[in-house]
Design goal:
- The complex is a heterodimer of chains A (113) and B (112).
- With 113 residues, chain A is an all-beta fold.
- Chain A contains no helices and 11 strands.
- With 112 residues, chain B is mostly beta strands.
- Chain B is 0% helix and 57% strand.
- In chain B, the strands form 2 sheets. In chain B, strands 2, 4, 5, 9, 10 and 11 form a 6-stranded mixed sheet that branches. A 5-stranded antiparallel sheet of chain B has the order 1-3-8-7-6, with no helix packed on it.
- In chain B, a hairpin with a 2-residue loop joins strand 6 and strand 7.
- The chains are: A mainly beta (113), B mainly beta (112).
Chain lengths: 113, 112
């Protein structure tokens, strides 16, 4: 059971470089999310997609863009990476918006130097 | 703004002990509350989901309770084992949007 799969698992970027984090889920879930986790800050929502074809900003969207490519895939793009974006990124999915269990990927460790 | 607090930040217990982890939230108008487990270097695994209309949920040795009026939830772990060592996070959902608000977690260590 793959669940939520994220790639890459580790990445080092130079300031100003761009990259895309990929996420795919095989549970036929409608909703997908991108979180970042930082020491002392906990998990914060970057963007979410309530359903295929829709995306909305979360708590900390600045510096990021997302694409809900289809029902399975939800990518997160850093257009011009900054050291403040050094973090662990988690993709997640759920059947609906609320009242449903949310499933997380294993995380992507991103370092911007 | 919803705030979620987990106390203690870290807890160390001997194997076999029953223990309670605490979670408090400032806005009692929640839709549901979830408890997660996070192992080092891994993602979060959902343990229990309590809807706002429920008082508790049980799964194996885990029991989570919810008291909306006081803004509190507890996660009770019975007969703890070294394999229970992990960070436990609670998160609340207000229901009006898709945003879960997470606590910072309790790092649990169960010593053999």
């Amino acid at each position: 059971n793959a669940g939520v799969t994220q790639t890459p698992k580790f990445q080092v970027l130079k300031t100003g470089q761009s990259m895309t984090l990929q996420c795919a889920q095989d549970m036929n879930h409608n909703s997908m999310y991108w979180y970042r986790q930082d020491p002392g800050m906990g998990l914060r929502l970057i963007y979410y997609s309530a359903s295929e074809g829709t995306t909305d900003k979360g708590e900390v969207p600045n510096g990021y863009n997302v694409s809900r490519l289809n029902k399975r895939e939800f990518s997160l793009r850093l257009e011009s990476a900054a050291p403040s974006q050094t973090s662990v990124y988690f993709c997640a999915s759920s059947q609906g918006s609320s009242g449903n269990t949310i499933y997380f990927g294993e995380g992507s460790w991103l370092t911007v130097v | 703004k919803q705030e979620v607090t987990q106390i203690p930040a870290a807890l160390s217990v001997p194997e076999g002990e029953n223990l309670v982890l605490n979670c408090s939230f400032t806005d009692s108008a929640i839709y549901n509350l979830q408890w997660f487990r996070q192992d080092p270097g891994k993602g979060l695994t959902s343990l229990l989901l309590i809807q706002s209309s429920q008082r508790e949920q049980t799964s194996g040795r885990l029991n989570a309770s919810l008291d909306k009026s006081s803004g509190r939830s507890t996660l009770y772990i019975a007969a703890s084992q070294p394999g229970d060592s992990a960070t436990y996070l609670c998160a609340v959902h207000l229901g009006s949007n898709y945003k879960l608000t997470f606590g910072k977690g309790t790092l649990l260590t169960v010593n053999p």
